[in-house]
Amino acid sequence: MLITSGGAATGSSEVAVDEMGSGTIFEGENGARPLANKGRGPAATKDISIFGLGYVGAISLACLARDGHRVVGVDIDSVKLDLIRARQSPILEEGIQELMRDVVDSGRVAVTNDATQAVRDTELSFVCVGTPSAANGSQDLTAILRLAEQIGAALKGKREFHTIVIRSTVQPGTLEEKIEPILERTSGKKSGVDFGLCFQPEFLREGSSIRDYDHPPYTIVGGNCEAAVNAVRELFEHLPGRFLVTSIRVAEALKMSCNAFHALKITFANEIGRVSQSLGIDSHEVMRLVCADTRLNISPAYLKPGFAFGGSCLPKDLRALTAIAKQNDLEIPMLASLLASNRAHVDHAVDKILKLGRPKVGMLGLSFKTGTDDLRESPLVMVAKRLIGEGCELRIFDPEVQLSRLLGANRSYIDAHIPHLGSLLCADIGDMIDPSEVILVGLQQSALDAELQARVRPDQFLLDLVNLPNRDLLRCRYEGVCW
Ligand SMILES: NC(=O)c1ccc[n+]([C@@H]2O[C@H](COP(=O)([O-])OP(=O)(O)OC[C@H]3O[C@@H](n4cnc5c(N)ncnc54)[C@H](O)[C@@H]3O)[C@@H](O)[C@H]2O)c1
């Protein structure tokens, strides 16, 4: 049944908003009129259903229809459906009211609460339902899993290939472990063959949603088959920013990581702001100059999973900053927790070794980073100290560290933490590798990599703290500290 804005038939403003009592949602090609395309939409027109008409779904519906596609919006909230029928947006965002009116007038938008019909009448479904926090902080997947049952049941009666694209933020593993099995069970079809499943994280920010939709930092999709990924590619490849394909799990983890990173950045700036204010310092000037360093600060530097930080500066200065906050009765919980998090990373590596139950451990590296003999607050010294305490038989090789050459604060530090270091240091890398059952690699140099490749044996276990290149060439059991 065709209805119009306000419910009355009005010739020119007739819209293809259908309650889907019968037939298809759109009445055919003629039912949809072209709309002045303010975006830079792709050429091929698709029939698309969107489940969940909140912030993400409503923006997607309006922008996809603007780009020339025919879009069916599905929601369980009849108020949202009625608003769209009345040419109004269910959400408030810059430019959305005008856009919603235009796309509804174009005849390319329909809304319904009938999930089955929406799936059958479209080739691709976007899932944008909410994934709020449960009482214990975990993600409440009730709505998305219930919807998966409905979509699966709808697929049962459909012969054509269908692509399902999850845009709700979900915890890693949700698609492959939860949604895919539900879809296969309820449809009786094979995922990746009869239907495709993708995760495409949404990067829009409320307040600038339409602009963000049209200018994503990049478009990322993880999918279980080429046909599904290509369907998404056809829709979004025209957008600025790269179109990147990855695995479903990486795409899921990426979205959560991005949000965590944004929260981290905001908290960092605010904690630095509070400390600066307490010292009478212009916090905006401090952060402006922090951001002006695009080599070490605003850059990929220090953003690779690896081992704990250490050395003579970072731990000491973090302690000092935390002390300043305390003296000024300020709470800076995030910055104050960094050393504890760093210690947890050291413990994580030690636990991996102790779990093996092999007491003979060889360490490649001891100083706080490759190319220096500075042992002060080196996380590798912490590892060595703990392993000795746990009764491991330790051998250490570090080409830069020679006991006779250690002086001053560096010497005092090591004397306080590993007084018998001299008896553990090996003069040659072979003396460290050959008798060891477990090898811990804490420094990376191409000459040493070659020695490792030549010497390690299949009966040995190697724990990599430095993300060794060419690790496929190592003939031993291998594990990364956090990869
Ligand atoms: N809001 C944002 O800026 C933003 C940005 C990126 C990602 N996300 C993620 O996108 C998802 C949606 O966020 P939102 O802010 O748009 O949520 P929202 O709460 O505004 O909207 C969700 C909609 O889904 C509907 N719904 C629930 N069950 C349904 C069902 N079975 N069938 C059809 N509709 C159903 C609800 O009625 C509601 O209208 C969340 O996972 C969120 O984390 C949100």
Main sheet record: 8 strands, mixed
Low-confidence region ranges: 1-24, 26-39
Radius of gyration: 29 Å
The CA-CA distance between the termini, in Å, is 55 Å
Order of strands in the sheet with most strands: 5-4-3-6-7-8-9-10
Amount of beta strand: 5-15%
Q: Give the bound compounds.
A: nicotinamide-adenine-dinucleotide
Beta strands, count: 15
Given helix and strand content, the structural type is alpha/beta
Description:
- With 483 residues, the protein is of the alpha/beta class.
- It is 41% helix and 13% strand.
- It contains 18 helices and 15 strands.
- It has helices at 55-66, 78-85, 96-106, 115-120, 142-156, 174-187, 209-214, 226-236, 248-278, 283-292, 314-327, 333-336, 338-355, 379-389, 408-417, 421-424, 429-433, 446-455; strands spanning 2-3, 17-18, 47-51, 70-74, 109-112, 124-127, 162-166, 195-199, 219-223, 243-246, 360-364, 393-397, 438-441, 461-464, 477-480.
- An eight-stranded mixed β-sheet has the order 5-4-3-6-7-8-9-10, sandwiched between helices. The protein has a five-stranded parallel β-sheet with strand order 12-11-13-14-15.
- Helix 6 links the parallel strand 7 and strand 8.
- Helix 1 (55-66) crosses helix 3 (96-106) and helix 13 crosses helix 14 (379-389).
- The structure holds nicotinamide-adenine-dinucleotide (NAD).
- Nicotinamide-adenine-dinucleotide binds at residues 51-57, 74-77, 80, 128-131, 143, 146-147, 168-169, 202, 204-206.
